[in-house]
Amino acid sequence: MALRVIIMTLIVAGILGGLYWFDRFRDNAIADFFANNKPPPTPIAIAPTRVEDVPRYLYGIGTLAAVRQVTVAPEVAGRVTDIFFEAGAQVEANVPLLQLNDRTERADLLALRAQARLAELNLSRAKELLERQAAAKATVDQHQAQLDEINANIQKTEAQISHKLVRAPFAGRLGIRQVDIGQFLSAGTPIVTLTDLSRLYVNFTLPEQARSELEVGQRAEITNDAFPGRVFAAKVTAIEPQVSADTRAIRVQATMDNPEQILLPGMFANVRVLLPPQPNAVTIPETAVDFTLYGDSVFLVREQDGPEGEKALTVERVPVKTGRRFGDRVVILSGLKPGDRVAASGQIKLSSGAAVTISEAEALTPPATLPLN
Hints:
Elements: H1 2-36, E1 42-48, E2 50-72, E3 78-83, E4 90-91, E5 96-100, H2 103-131, H3 137-164, E6 165-167, E7 172-174, E8 184-185, E9 192-207, E10 219-223, E11 232-243, E12 249-257, E13 268-285, E14 296-305, E15 311-326, E16 329-334, E17 341-345, E18 355-358
Parallel strand pairs: 1-18
Antiparallel strand pairs: 1-17, 2-9, 2-13, 3-5, 3-8, 4-7, 5-6, 7-9, 9-12, 10-11, 10-13, 11-12, 13-16, 14-15, 15-16, 15-18
Helix pairs in contact: 2-3
């Protein structure tokens, strides 16, 4: 029995010892594997920092308005007898647009002209009699007053006749016709809109903090969703001398040429007023910055000597302070200096101390930016 117990004890001890040895062997093998198995360098796109003048803008949202736009309407009442325009036509200044019935006024004008001729004859006879001392001076004055009164009525009737012919007050494009022949119009009844599309106002607002940098004559760039990618030039022409107490915003008006007449009054406009650029700013591609709630950072590329004397590239995460963005680049206020190189793509695979290689194929193509001039 004692021999059996000894044999069983030796067998159990052998099994436990073998398990312990296997566990230590496995741990050492795993440690050796990871110690000798280095991952290959991560391919990334590298971008150097750039020192350049950074454009500055004041951004606003506005509405386009015509420099000259009216709703054409008659000054007097009357029935429409003729319409001389087509909807949407381009017309010149003083072109007849609509004729109201003026027969009564023209008949009155003929009667007044006949009365004027008679009054002229009576005045002429009275003057001849006065020269022969056969009439009184009061008679001549009376006939002169009658002639003057008739001439005044003639001018009044001619003005009424001219009001019955509605003309374009300026050159522009007509809108949709709102009347028909035979329709009786009251004074002020809308006939058609007339808009001069050659020049437009851009009315927009800016926060009151922008007043110190805002001046009349500054250039502005206008973009519109109807024409993506196009930039229209304008110039600041007026600044409201009061700040809105409700919004604390300043109303600004810019004027722009519209030679193609593709922009229309009432359209939405994105406005940016050009300011003097920020000189000698350090910039990098926006894709190189890792923006997080805990701060912004970049992977700075460093060059080190390898085990065989060759140059090896590694990266280190560096916190940075970013400034304004423009186009595909961002200003770095602190954390980098001119000449530094950063990882512009592939950062998701990186960590501090990781080996990297340059891969031009992974470099991102920057988007098109708006020109400064």
